[in-house]
Amino acid sequence: MKNTAQIFKSDKFKTAIISIAIRTKPDFYDASKNALLAKVFSVSSNDYKTKQDFTEKLEDMNGAVYDVSVIKKGDEHIILFFMEVLCIKESSLKEPLEFIKSVLYNPFVCKNAFDKNMFEREKRRLLNEIKTKRDKLSEYVVDRCIEEMYDKKGFGINSKGDYDVVSNITSEELFEYYKYIMENGIFEFIISGNINVEDVKDYIRYNFTDILYRDYKNKCEYEEFYNDEKEVFENADIKQGKLCVGFKTGICLGDDEYIPLIIFNEILGGSPNSLLFLNAREKEGLCYYINSYVYKFKGVIIVQAGIDKNEYSKTLNIIKETIKNIKNEISDDVFENAKSNIIKMYKDIEDSMPSVCDNILNNILIEKNITIEDYISAIEKCKKDDVLSIIEKVKLDTIYFISSDKEEVVK
Amino acid sequence: MIPVSKKNEVLKESISIYTLENGMKCYLIPKKDYISNECAIVVFYGANDISFKIDDEIYNSNLGTAHFIEHKLFAKPEGDVFSLFAKQNAEANAFTDFGKTVYYFTCNDNLKENLKTLIYMVKKPYFTNENVNSEKDIIKQEITMYEDNPDWCCYYNMLNIMYNNHPIKNKIAGNCESVEKIDEKMLYKCYNSFYVPSNMALVCAGNFNENDIFEFIKNEFSDFNNKNECSVIYKNEESNIIEKYIEAKMDIKESFFNIGYKLPKYFFKSDIKKSFAIKILSDILFGESSNFYKKMYEKGILKEPLGMDFISGKEFAFLVITGQCLFAEDVAEYIIYEFEKAKKEGIMSAVFDRIKKKHCSRFIRGLNSIDAEVMAQIEFATKNTDIIDAYDSLMEIDIDYIKDIITKGFFSKDMVLSVVKPKE
After folding, report:
1. What fold characterizes domain B245-422?
2. Residue B338 in 3-state DSSP?
3. Alpha carbon distance A36, A161 (integer Å)
4. What's the rounded Cα separation, in Å, for the pair B372 and B380?
5. Label partner for B216 (CA 20 to 30 A): which of A283, A345, B23, B295?
6. Would you list the domain boundaries of chain B?
7. What is the pTM of this model?
8. Which residues have a Cβ under 8 Å from the Cβ of B185 and sit 6 or more positions away?
C-alpha cells in the first residue's frame, strides 16, 4: 500500500478541515516521544517561535482552530494534526497549508536540537499532564483498565506517555526522533471543505512531496486472550467509586462479525434504553450513569459506571448476569430497534465533517473502503442469529475499580 | 399565521419565529442539507427559582426541585418516555441550569412522531409517591458524582464567598438532604407555577418544511393553555462579596482555582451584545495570545489556557476565570493588574480587531452543527433574541463599547479566589 492524500470538496459546512495523521506503532519508549513531539508541534515553528506569535497567527487566520494530539486506533498511535478554518467562499487554503508546512518542515531548532527553552517548557507541560491524569477520573479509569488489559503494550500504552520516560528524553533525542519520523513516517492527508481541489492537490504535491507515496506494510497482529479475569483496585479518597469492566471479543472493524458486535453493544449499554441502564439504574437505583462502548480497532467493550463502593459486588453481578441472560432479552422488537438506532448513528456522520474525516481515516487503517451506505446495508441485513452467535466471544478480561477504602471492597 | 422570518446571506442561515396563541415562541431553523433534526423545549425555570409568590402567598420549594422535575417528567403512566423516544429512533436528553430546564431529542426520520412525544411529555406530568421516591437514589448518585469533581467544588465554593443570599450559590441538583424531602406535591406545585406557555419556548432545526412543522406544533399545543402569575422572590443581596478567599482539599494531584468578579447591577440580565463583549474583553486580556498569558506560560505558571465565562441572570452577574496551577494567588494578582491597566490605558485596536474576528468566526463555526445551533438558539431565546440578530449584535461591538464596559465593574474589591488543593 502507498499513502496518498484524500482531498474532496463539500460546501455543506462553513469551515474546511485539514487533518494530517502520522501513523506509528511505538514501543513503550517511543510512545512518550510521540506525546512530546505532538506538544512541540502544537505550539511552535521557526516562523512563529513563541506561543504568542503562534497563537496570533492562528487568530489572524480568522481564528483558525489548530491542535496536535496523539490518538490511538488499536495498536496504532497516531500523531494527529487537526486544523479547521472558516471557508464560506471557495478557497485554496494556501495560508493554513503554509502554516502546517512551517510547523512540520521548519521546527524551532538550534544546533541539531529543539530550542532548549521551548523544549523544556513543553516537557514540563507534558510531565504535568501525566502527573495529573487521575484528576480526570472517568478518562483515567478507562485508560488504566486498557493498560491492564494489554500489559502496557500496543493499544495498552498510554498515549500521553510515561512520566519517567518523558523525564529522560533530551532535546537532541527528540530531534533525532523527529528526523526519523519525517524520513520514515506514514503521513495520511485528509482535506475537505468548500475548497478548490486542484489548487490544494498542487500545493500538497509540491510542498509535501517527500512524505507522499510512501510504501508501507501493515503487520497483522492477533489478539491475545487471557484465561483469568483480572481484578485491579485503586484507592483514592473519593465519594463515588468508578467501575470499569473491560471485555475482549477479538472482533474488529472490517470483520464480518463487527456489525453484530455493535448491535450487541447497543442492546447491552449503548443508550438509556439499554439493558444495563434498565437493570442497574432504573430497577436498582445503583447509579446515575452506566454505559458500554466498543473500541472498534480492538473489539474491546468497556462498561463504565459510577457507584457507591459498597455496591461493587452487586453492580458487577448485574453486569455479568445481564450479559449471561442477554440471549433471552433480545426480542425481535429490541433487535430491530437497536438496528435502527445504529443506522441513525451512521447517518449522523454525514452531518459532521470531523466524523466524515474520521471515517475516511478508519478506512485507510483497515485498508478497506466501507462507505456509510455499506454500513447501513450491512446493518439492515444483519440477522438476530448473527448477534446471538457472537455472544460467546465476549470474554471478561479486566475489572478496574477506584474508590476509597479498597480493603472493604475486596472482602 | 405569518412568522417573522430572518435571513443572513453571508452566513447562509435563516430562521422563522412563530408565536402561538398561548404565548409560546417557536424558533424554526431550516438546515436543508442535513440528515438529522433536533428539537428542544426550554422552560425558563431553573435552580434559582426556589421561592415564589402566587396570589400573595409565598411558597418555598426545596433546593434541587427544578432538576428533580427534569428527571421525573420522563415518567408517564404507560412507562418511561426515554424508551418511547428510543423506539422512535430518537435520542432524548435533558438538562437543568440556574435559569432554565431543557428537554430535547435528535432524530432523522419520524420528526413529527417524536415532536408529539416531546410535547406530550412536557404537557402531562405524572408524579407519584412511588416514582418520586425511587428517583431519589439515582439523583443522590448524580450529586455524589459531582462532589468528586474538583472543578465543580471549586466553582461552588467561589459562589459561596461571593453571594450571601442569592440562590445562584446553591448547587443545581440540591443536596442529598434537600432531595430526600422533595415529594410529588412539591413537584406539581412548581410544575403548575412555571410550566406555562408564556414561560417556555420551542427550538427546532433540521430538514423540514417550516410551515408544516409549525402547524403540527400548534395543533399539539392547542390544549395547553395553563396560566399562572407567579413571581420569583430573591432576598436582598448586598453588592459586596463575603470573603476574599476560600480553600478546600481533595484527593487530587494539582490545584484547581476559580477567580470570580462579582458584577454590579449594570450587568444583571445582560443582553447578548453585552455578553459577547465581556467574552471578547476577557479573551483580549487573558486569552492565549495575551501578554498576560505569554508571561504565565513562559514562566511555567500556567500550562493550559484559562477557562473564562460570563454568567448573568435575574439579580446577579459574575465573571469567572478557571485554571489549574500551584500559584493561584499570583495569577489572581496579575489578573487584577491587567484589569487596572486596561482601565487606565485602554486596549489596542489591532488586538481588539483580531479577537473580535476570532469570536465571529467561532460563532459561524458553531452553525456547522445542528446540536450546537439549537443549544445556541436556546441561550438566545432566554434573552428573547435569535441567531440572526445575535450575529448582528456581535458584529456591532466596537472598541469604545468594550472600553465603556471595563469601567462598569471588574474592581479588585469585588474579586474572590477559590482554590482546591491536593491533600498532603
Report:
1. Cytochrome Bc1 Complex; Chain A, domain 1 (3.30.830)
2. helix
3. 8
4. 12
5. A345
6. 4-232, 245-422
7. 0.94
8. none
Q: Which helix (H) or strand (E) holds B260?
A: strand B256-262
Between chain A and chain B, the number of residue pairs with CB atoms below 8 A apart is 152
- The single residue listed with the C-alpha cell 412522531 is B113
> What chain B residue is nearest to A242 in terms of C-alpha separation?
B145
Q: Min CA distance, B89 vs chain A (Å)?
A: 5
Contact B237, B163 (CB under 8 A): yes
A12 contacts in chain B (CB < 8 Å): 33-34
Quote the ipTM score. 0.91
Q: What angle do CA B214, B219, B222 make, to 5 degrees?
A: 120
If you compute the radius of gyration of chain A from its CA atoms, what whole number of angstroms results? 23
Q: Inform me whether the C-beta atom of residue B294 falls under 8 Å from chain A C-beta atoms.
A: yes
Answer for the pair B161, B88: CB distance below 8 angstroms, yes or no: no
Q: How many CB atoms lie within 10 A of CB B7?
A: 11
Picking from B142, B251, B304, the nearest residue to A236 by CB comes out as B251
Closest residue to B370, CB basis, from A84, A238, A351: A351
Spatial distance between the Cα atoms of A319 and A247, rounded to a whole number of angstroms: 11
Chain A residue closest in CA terms to B364: A14
Closest CA to B140 of B47, B75, B190, B68: B68
Q: Do B253 and A135 touch (CB under 8 A)?
A: yes
Nearest beta carbon to residue A121 from set B300, B365, B368: B300
CB contact under 8 A, A344 and B108: yes
pLDDT per residue of chain B (424 residues) written in tens, 0 to 9: 788 999 999 899 999 999 999 999 999 999 999 999 999 999 999 999 999 998 889 999 999 999 999 999 999 999 999 889 998 999 999 999 999 999 999 999 999 999 999 999 999 999 999 999 999 999 999 999 999 999 999 999 999 999 999 999 999 999 999 999 999 999 999 999 999 999 999 999 999 999 999 999 999 999 999 888 889 999 889 999 999 999 999 999 999 999 999 999 999 999 999 999 999 999 999 999 999 999 999 988 999 999 999 999 999 999 999 999 989 999 999 999 999 999 999 999 999 999 999 999 999 999 999 999 999 999 999 999 999 999 999 999 999 999 999 999 999 999 999 999 999 7
Interchain proximity A337–B87, CB inside 8 Å: yes
- Whether B4-232 shares its CATH topology with B245-422 is answered yes
Q: Please report the domains of chain A, with CATH numbers, ordered by start residue.
A: 5-211 (3.30.830.10), 230-410 (3.30.830.10)
Q: Within 10 Å of residue B299's Cβ, how many Cβ atoms?
A: 11
How far is A328 from A330, CA to CA, in rounded Å? 6
Q: What CATH number was assigned to the domain covering residues B4-232?
A: 3.30.830.10
Tell me, yes or no, if B87 comes closer than 8 A to chain A by beta carbon. yes
Nearest residue on chain B to A283, alpha-carbon basis: B134
B265 contacts chain A (CB < 8 A): no
CB contact under 8 A, B35 and A135: no
Work out the number of other CB atoms within 10 angstroms of the CB of residue A145. 27
C-alpha cell at B65: 426541585
A392 contacts: CB under 8 Å, gap ≥ 6: none
B358 touches chain A (CB under 8 A): yes
User: Is the CB of residue B86 less than 8 Å away from at least one CB of chain A?
Assistant: yes
Q: Which of B82, B87, B145 sits opposite A240 (nearest CB)?
A: B145
Q: Which of B139, B196, B194 is nearest to B171 (CA)?
A: B139
- Chain A interface mutation, best of B303, B359, B363, highest count of A Cβ atoms under 10 Å: B303
Q: List Cβ neighbours of A122 (8 Å cut-off, separation of 6 or more).
A: A36, A39, A40, A43
Q: Which of A284, A288, A337 to mutate to test the interface with B (most CBs of B within 10 A)?
A: A288
* Distance from the A374 Cα atom to the nearest Cα atom in chain B, whole angstroms: 17
Q: Which of B137, B251, B367 sits opposite A14 (nearest CB)?
A: B367
